Amino acid sequence: MAMYQRALCWVRRDLRLRDHTALAAATRQTREVIVVFVFDTNILRNLEDKDDRRLTFIHHSLQDMQRRLVKKGSSLLVCHGDPVLDIPRLAQDLKVQAVFTNRDYDPYARKRDRIVEQKLKISDVAFHSYMDQVVFEHPDIVTRQGEPYKVFTPYKNAWLAALRPEQLVEEKPNLKRLAQAKVFEKWSDPWSLKALGFEENDLWLKAGEEGARAAWKKFQKHMHRYHRDRDFPSRNHGTSGLSAHLRFGTISIRELVRTALTQKDEGARAWLTELIWRDFYQTILDRFSYVVRGAFRSEYDRIQWPGKPEHFEKWCRGETGYPLVDAAMRHFERTGWMHNRLRMVVASFLVKDLLIDWRWGEAWFARKLLDFDLASNNGGWQWCASTGCDAQPWFRIFNPVTQSKHFDPEGRFLRAHLPELAGFSNTHIHWPHEAPASEQEKAGCRLGRDYPTPIVDHAAQREKALKLFEGVSQTV
Ligand code: FAD
């Protein structure tokens, strides 16, 4: 194999040095590799919050990467601009012969990479992209007819059957080949978010490879209990908390799958299934990119959602009068993270109790989630709204009070995030509206004053939701 003299490794949602496919390939095939990250102005300009937590997470992760690179006598090149212009420009300035990168399946990223590749080609610079974010990409897992799977269980079975140890082998970069970037960007302080027009925000977790490794180490001790704990939001380490790390690639999916496979217990099997859902939704987004705009099952785009904008505002603020929904939404606002059970409860409530278009909720999550991932978020919302490929049937509607009793029986999550309800008994905290006046007084919480009265009646809304869906499914 001919060696390149110098190459760029362009990192995007793979902010680590360990087990990194593009970096391993680049350092195998090149004498000098420069690692570059571009704060993409096309993405930044669409962020609505100046203190968007994702930028803090990225910023901290880049700092972590920089520390590791400096130890190896190298450094990270950070730019702020449009990658379609910046990557070809850097390739020229740095006189590289190739650009290496890991594939990203978002429609925007796909288009961006196609343009970058074409531009590089004009100047005779090679563009190499690799699968790294997922274990399988399309068309690795297809039906006998060569079509992508639209139902999860057969996809999962095919995924497990196709898995070979070589797919999970650690992709070790040769860090001796990392070079110091000789060109300095005009942007004087790449380590300050202020220079990008953003502010730091608090993170509830440590970002970067260091944070990922610590979280992963902790979760490995709890993985065997995952199938029992995963649905209870107040249980410590009931789930891994790794979603933001997976989103930004501060840990390798191969490493997680390797470990889950060796543990072989029920907990590990259940957890592996969730990692497979992640691959599944990436394929759905990749092959059916229209889901970004509308329902996977397009007949559901005919639903005329009668919900009220003021109810949407109350849902966002956690003021619906339904304690589990409100606790989840307020915790979400403070942290940018939500437990999977609660994502399902609040999504179902928005769509099937407030009768609001699921895309409004999807957009709110896209704005606020630290682990926002277009494929998983869209898949999750379409599952809850019953419009997706392998979704919750439309006639199954979560009762938010029953969910609360079931998954937070002692009201621990509710008490932690709705302090005004903390004084209610375990019997009434899930639905304080039926607590006797004496209990309200004892709890120091007058309903309607200190905590909102319910904005809708679940039973009545349920009937309306069934009619809405029935109307559409009868015309199919
Ligand atoms: P764990 O339970 O430890 O799972 C391990 C990993 O598996 C997760 O980190 C995640 O990468 C993956 N995973 C778990 N569940 C799912 C799932 N249902 N679909 C796809 N991947 C999954 N996940 C995101 O990563 N980003 C999103 O934007 C996102 N939006 C969602 C929106 C809705 C409405 C719903 C119902 C789910 C959404 N999910 C999303 C899936 C899931 O809620 C989160 O991945 C999970 O809560 C993250 O916590 P964890 O890392 O502790 O998960």
From TrEMBL:
Its cofactor is (6R)-5,10-methylene-5,6,7,8-tetrahydrofolate; FAD. The gene is phrA. Keywords: Chromophore, FAD, Flavoprotein, Lyase. It is an enzyme of class 4 (lyase). It comes from Nitrospina watsonii. Pfam families: DNA_photolyase, FAD_binding_7. It comes from the Bacteria. Belongs to the DNA photolyase family. Its EC number is 4.1.99.3. Residues 5-135 form the Photolyase/cryptochrome alpha/beta domain. The lineage of its organism: Bacteria, Pseudomonadati, Nitrospinota/Tectimicrobiota group, Nitrospinota, Nitrospinia. This is Deoxyribodipyrimidine photo-lyase. GO terms for molecular function: deoxyribodipyrimidine photo-lyase activity.
